[in-house]
């Protein structure tokens, strides 16, 4: 069994064929899927979608690229209520993204401080509710680790890890997990394969980030949870273990990391 620990099943690209996407995943041995939310409305949609499938587990949270769209003052209270009422798997995805330009009306520094504010509030919420955190970082790896350093004991995964060895070492020393997408299959990503080989056995997970980041041989096509098998196969290769072992280890790690995943 494999677990896709990061898919966006509420994406428009899956609309009207969610049943087939989830069935194709099952047919490939991907028996559980963590569906990740990006903003307040999406958090509600993800919870709603997960309630219709017994093998889909929701997260709730505000992605750093959408922090300017959350207008209600009560956003944090609403995320908290969703998390409390629906036994979610994690808070996420949250974090910092310094890759994209700030939206209209924000200077670079205002944008970064807005992102930090939302990130810090959601770290505190996760710790208050004793939930793990799914973290997005893009050109912000050092800053993410710096903020997390102020919250020792936070249980978090750096999703789609593509960082440096120094960042990996720091993250691991803080007890964080690293999770790998189809990027690990890309010819131009030898550093990512190196880190997938380097991460300790009890600290890695696999994910698609579908519908984005399709692994080889599906690059350019829409990604979906079934394709996490290709990412797991590549990680097995670089770690010199069998596909079966890689599936067992990453599944055990996902069960240990996420809330409520083991039941069901
Ligand atoms: Zn994502």
Could you walk me through the main structural features you see in this protein, from its secondary elements to its overall organization?
By secondary structure, this protein is of the alpha/beta class. The chain has a single domain, classed as TIM Barrel (Alpha-Beta Barrel). The protein has 9 helices and 8 strands. An 8-stranded parallel β-sheet has the order 1-2-3-4-5-6-7-8, with helices on both faces. Helix 5 links the parallel strand 5 (133-138) and strand 6 (156-158). Helix 7 (190-198) packs across helix 8 (228-239). The radius of gyration is 17 Å and the shape is globular. Residues 6, 8, 36, 93, 209 line the site of zinc ion (ZN).
* Principal-axis shape: globular
**Helical residues, percent:** 40-55%
What proportion of the residues form beta strands (DSSP E)? Answer: 15-25%
CATH superfamily annotation: Metal-dependent hydrolases
In total, how many beta strands? 8
What is the CATH architecture term?
A: Alpha-Beta Barrel
For the biggest β-sheet, the strand order reads 1-2-3-4-5-6-7-8
Q: What ligand species are in this complex?
A: zinc ion
| Number of individual domains | 1
Total number of helices: 9
Which blocks of ≥5 consecutive residues have pLDDT under 50?
Answer: none
Q: What's the average pLDDT? A: 95
Radius of gyration: 17 Å
The multimeric state of the shown protein is single chain
Provide the CATH topology. Answer: TIM Barrel
Distance between the termini: 13 Å
The helix/strand series, from N terminus to C terminus, equals: EHEHEHEHEHEHEHEHH
């Amino acid at each position: 069994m494999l677990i896709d620990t990061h898919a966006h099943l509420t994406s428009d690209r899956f609309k009207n064929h969610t049943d087939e996407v989830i069935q194709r995943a099952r047919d490939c041995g991907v028996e559980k899927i963590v569906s990740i939310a990006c903003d307040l409305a999406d958090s509600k949609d993800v919870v709603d979608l997960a309630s219709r499938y017994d093998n889909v587990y929701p997260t709730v949270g505000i992605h750093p690229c959408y922090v300017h769209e959350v207008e209600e003052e009560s956003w944090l209270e609403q995320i908290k209520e969703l998390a409390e009422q629906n036994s979610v798997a994690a808070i996420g995805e949250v974090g910092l993204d310094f890759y994209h330009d700030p939206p209209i009306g924000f200077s670079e520094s205002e944008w970064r401080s807005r992102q930090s504010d939302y990130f810090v509030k959601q770290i505190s919420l996760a710790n208050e509710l004793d939930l793990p955190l799914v973290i997005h970082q893009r050109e912000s790896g050092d800053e993410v680790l710096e903020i997390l350093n102020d919250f020792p004991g936070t249980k978090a995964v750096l999703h789609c890890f593509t960082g440096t060895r120094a960042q990996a070492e720091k993250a691991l020393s803080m007890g964080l997990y690293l999770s790998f997408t189809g990027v690990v299959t890309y010819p131009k990503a030898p550093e990512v394969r190196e880190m997938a080989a380097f991460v300790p056995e009890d600290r890695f997970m696999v994910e698609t980030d579908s519908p984005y980041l399709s692994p080889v041989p599906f690059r350019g096509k829409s990604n979906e949870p079934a394709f996490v098998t290709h990412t797991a196969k590549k990680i097995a290769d670089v770690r010199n273990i069998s596909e079966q072992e890689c599936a067992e280890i990453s599944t055990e790690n996902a069960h240990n990391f996420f809330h409520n995943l083991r039941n069901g």
